[in-house]
Design brief:
By secondary structure, the chain is α/β, with parallel strands linked by helices. 51% of the residues lie in helices and 11% in strands. The protein has three domains: 171 residues, Conserved hypothetical protein from pyrococcus furiosus pfu- 392566-001, ParB domain; 71 residues; 44 residues, no CATH class.
């Protein structure tokens, strides 16, 4: 989880903060990372999480033994030369299990933390931020302040589903993130691509079809439905997205109007267009 979030956190962060904001407060500068004894670190007293899964902690401890701690803890100094964990208690517990004497930390005063939190919250609420930039800021709040997405949603006055949908954008393949940041696809398109997370090849093909064929969000959703119904052949799934087929062309020629095929989760709909009542009467007479 931490590793995945780290990958997307550094992108575009300079654009998220005001020119006068002290960017040294953000975890991006290796010179601010120090190693501190695990014995000098204490958990946060108001940590909302009270239970830590022993099995998952053991798995994380094994990973730390092999690869080390990939993201430093965020701590705040206490009066007795100890430090309180602001974010990273699970990593700290796993490090103790792994037998580490010291862990990498970023030390921040409470004033620094307050400034950073306020800056991130303010920037998430900016109207000119792209959805990916918002997701980056949300992830910062989650990781660096141990805030749940429910807490973040309450703080921002947003629906929890909105926050969750935005943060999920960080799970997009890099090529899709790039397309979204360049406005080649919409957030609705991105959600359809995310729905195929178990099929990376189909994600790429869907992205290519959206860009090259100008697919609407509805068409992208129909492609996803086809794939989830078991159609893994791109050409077949793509054909089910198209509103115009050989059959609709024949019917359109016979009726003298536009005929479209709209596939749905179950079955579909055949749409026959008409401009006015007179044209409808003609179409009905031809059907008779």
């Amino acid at each position: 989880m931490d590793k995945k979030i780290k990958k997307g956190l550094g992108k575009g962060l300079n654009d998220l903060l005001s020119p006068n904001f002290n960017k040294d407060l953000v975890i991006n500068d290796d010179e601010r990372i120090k190693k501190i004894s695990v014995k000098k670190i204490v958990p946060k007293t108001d940590q909302p999480r009270s239970h830590f899964d022993d099995e998952k902690l053991s798995e994380l401890a094994l990973s730390i033994k092999r690869h080390g701690i990939l993201m430093p803890l965020v701590v705040s100094p206490l009066k007795d030369d100890n430090y309180q964990i602001i974010a990273g208690e699970r990593r700290w517990r796993a490090a103790i299990i792994a037998g580490l004497d010291k862990v990498p930390v970023v030390i921040r005063s409470l004033k620094e933390l307050e400034k950073l939190e306020i800056a991130l919250v303010e920037n998430i609420q900016r109207v000119d931020l792209s959805s990916l930039e918002q997701a980056t800021s949300l992830a910062k709040l989650h990781v660096q302040f141990s805030m749940s997405y429910d807490e973040i949603a309450t703080r921002l006055g947003k629906a929890v589903s909105t926050v969750n949908n935005t943060i999920r954008l960080l799970n997009l393949p890099d090529i899709a993130k790039d397309a979204l940041s360049k406005n080649k696809i919409s957030e609705g398109h991105a959600r359809s691509i995310l729905a195929l997370k178990d099929f990376p090849d189909l994600q790429k093909k869907l992205l290519a079809s959206i860009i090259s064929s100008g697919w609407s969000v509805r068409q992208a959703e129909r492609y996803v439905v086809s794939c989830k119904e078991g159609i893994k052949d791109h050409k077949v799934a793509k054909a089910r997205v198209l509103s115009e087929t050989v059959e609709t062309k024949k019917l359109a020629k016979k009726l003298g109007t536009v005929v479209s095929l709209r596939r749905m989760a179950k079955g579909g709909r055949l749409e026959i267009a008409f401009k006015n009542d007179q044209e409808l009467t003609k179409i009905l007479s031809r059907i008779d």
